[in-house]
């Protein structure tokens, strides 16, 4: 299950790129975990004869499992990769989820193995969201039990929180059963859809994001931020911060792929967002003065209660999306307050 640090490691590693009419931005953060076990791959143009195809993937390792990057086939590729990994990791514990997107000129292919997730936003709404492979779902539980395992505390044999993954060969020892019928299966679900002009973006993220935000919340938040800023890393990093404030205790990686139909800047939305910032700053000053607050944690608790009465907060993000405004005002009033003033667990 892994241990935790005394305070979260909040430094973010950001990567950006573009090609084939696509732009992407990835941010990853270790968070509360003792180690960073996430990995990713982003290739905007594959080798010939697939130069007009793109490939993106997020891999969430567990039990110190290091995931190699791969641009191979989809379902057959997953199974073959698992066999290749067995040759070098058969006696080693741990494994990795894998969630990938292959983008051709006319189609999008999503492949998911584990509890990372891919989401397509189309026409301002969540169009497709892959299904997490959790041991307690009926389909997964049935396979686990038929393979001689059990589901306890929502985990395979009480230890593993995902029911499909690459690696995890301790759960793949039954030679009488096929590769995909083991307690933990390497078989991905593959979703295929035609590309439309209304396709906006694709999100691929590990469960450190989805543990505390829904597919629609992340999609709506990103869509709303694309209307007010061109700073894509800031948008992606904001999702990480919101998840941390909401209590995510896991590593976090989010890969955002912008398609040609992605939202663009809107002057009315920009104006409304600036006015919202001014409103939140004013409310923060009034709360500090009225309640004679000098403790940031107390301030945030009061601001959370008041958020229901603050209109037009960013959808999906709420008051946490404007945390930096509250923090800025607090430091203006209390310049000697320590830089790290936020107790992520208790607010």
Tell me the CATH superfamily of the largest domain: PPM-type phosphatase domain
Q: Main beta sheet, described? A: 6 strands, antiparallel
Q: What's the order of the H and E elements?
A: EEEEHEEEEHEEEEEHHHEHHH
The general outline is globular
Task: Give the percentage of residues in beta strands.
Answer: 25-35%
The CATH topology of the largest domain comes to Phosphatase 2c, domain 1
What is the typical, i.e. mean, pLDDT?
90
Strand order of the largest sheet: 1-2-14-13-7-8
Give your account of this protein's structure.
The model is unreliable at 64-72 and 343-347 (pLDDT under 50). The two termini are 24 Å apart. Helix content is 29%, strand content 28%. A hairpin with a 2-residue loop joins strand 9 (151-152) and strand 10 (155-156). With 347 residues, it is of the alpha+beta class. It is globular, with a radius of gyration of 22 Å. The protein has helices at residues 75-89, 138-146, 207-210, 215-226, 232-245, 267-291, 296-306, 323-333; strands at residues 4-19, 22-33, 38-43, 54-62, 95-103, 107-113, 117-122, 125-129, 151-152, 155-156, 166-167, 189-194, 199-205, 252-258. It folds into 2 domains: 4-258, Phosphatase 2c, domain 1 (4-Layer Sandwich), CATH 3.60.40; 267-333, Arc Repressor Mutant, subunit A, CATH 1.10.10. It has a 6-stranded antiparallel sheet. Strands 3, 4, 5, 6, 11 and 12 form a 6-stranded antiparallel sheet that branches. A two-stranded antiparallel ribbon has the order 9-10.
């Amino acid at each position: 299950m892994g241990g935790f640090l005394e305070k979260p490691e909040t430094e973010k590693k950001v990567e950006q790129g573009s090609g084939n009419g696509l732009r992407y931005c990835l941010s990853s953060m270790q968070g509360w975990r003792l180690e960073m076990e996430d990995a990713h791959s982003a290739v905007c143009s594959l080798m010939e004869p697939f130069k007009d195809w793109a490939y993106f993937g997020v891999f969430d390792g567990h039990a110190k499992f290091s995931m190699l990057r791969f641009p191979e086939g989809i379902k057959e590729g997953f199974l073959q990769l698992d066999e290749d990994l067995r040759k070098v990791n058969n006696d080693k514990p741990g494994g990795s989820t894998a969630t990938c997107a292959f983008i051709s000129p006319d189609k999008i292919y999503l492949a998911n193995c584990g509890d990372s997730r891919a989401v397509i936003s189309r026409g301002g709404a969540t169009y497709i969201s892959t299904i997490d492979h959790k041991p307690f779902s009926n389909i997964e539980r049935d396979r686990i039990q038929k393979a001689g395992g059990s589901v306890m505390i929502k985990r395979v044999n009480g230890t593993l929180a995902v029911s499909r993954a690459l690696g995890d060969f301790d759960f793949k020892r039954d030679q009488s059963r096929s590769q995909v019928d083991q307690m933990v299966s390497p078989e991905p679900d593959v979703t295929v859809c035609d590309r439309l002009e209304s396709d906006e973006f694709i999100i691929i993220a590990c469960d450190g994001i989805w543990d505390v935000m829904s597919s629609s919340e992340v999609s709506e938040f990103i869509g709303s931020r694309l209307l007010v800023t061109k700073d894509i890393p800031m948008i992606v990093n904001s999702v990480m911060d919101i998840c941390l404030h909401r209590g995510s205790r896991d590593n976090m990686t989010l890969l955002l792929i912008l398609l040609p139909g992605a939202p663009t800047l809107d002057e009315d939305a920009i104006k409304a967002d600036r006015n919202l910032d001014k409103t939140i700053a004013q409310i923060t000053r009034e709360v500090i003065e009225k309640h004679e607050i000098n403790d940031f944690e107390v301030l945030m608790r009061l601001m959370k209660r008041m958020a229901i009465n603050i209109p037009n907060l960013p959808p999906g993000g709420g008051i946490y999306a404007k945390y930096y405004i509250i923090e800025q005002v607090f430091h203006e009033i209390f310049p000697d307050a320590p830089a790290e003033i936020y107790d992520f667990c208790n607010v």
